[in-house]
Amino acid sequence: MDSLKKCTGVRMYHTASSTGFKCDAVFDEIERNLEKDGAKYVSKVKSVFAFDILDGPGGKKGKWIVDVKNGNGSVEYGSKKKADCTITVKDGDLIDLALGKLQPQSAFFSGKLKIAGNMATAMKLQQILPKPKAKL
Q1: DSSP label at residue 129
Q2: Is the pLDDT of residue 11 over 50?
Q3: 3-state DSSP assignment of residue 62
């Protein structure tokens, strides 16, 4: 996780409810962004995303819901909330996407990233995901 902190240029924390997935840091950062500017994101994005994460610790699967449609937004692990768009990706690949090591388009076309639901909605994700720090 330290590498994610350094590469994104954003401080990432783990909560007491950490799931053991590498991508916890990505969802923690999204949650902090929503806590800070949630109303702004909700007014632009207006969608609920489900992330089905594969190949977690011990081969475990996990599901996060990122609600950028209601209130000031929220991030929930294990929620059954209905999503407008579902993203299926491996734990390590989501980290690589967040770090900028894996481009979303190439991940999609190579089958590393699967999208169910509205593709236009999936494109809105770029507004809420942590941005990798530019390399100089």
Answers
A1: S
A2: no
A3: strand
CA nearest to 55, candidates 80, 25, 22: 22
44-48, long-range: CB within 8 Å, 24+ apart, which pairs? 44/124, 44/127, 45/69, 45/124, 45/127, 45/128, 47/84, 47/85, 47/118, 47/121, 47/124, 48/81, 48/82, 48/83, 48/84, 48/85
What percentage of residues in the chain have a pLDDT greater than 90?
67
The reply to whether the predicted model has a pTM over 0.85 is no
Residues 6+ apart with CB under 8 A from 46: 68, 69
How far does CA 64 lie from the centroid of its chain? Answer: 8
Q: Which two tokens stand for residue 40?
A: 């702004």
Tell whether the torsion through CA atoms of 36, 78, 103 and 6 is positive or negative: positive
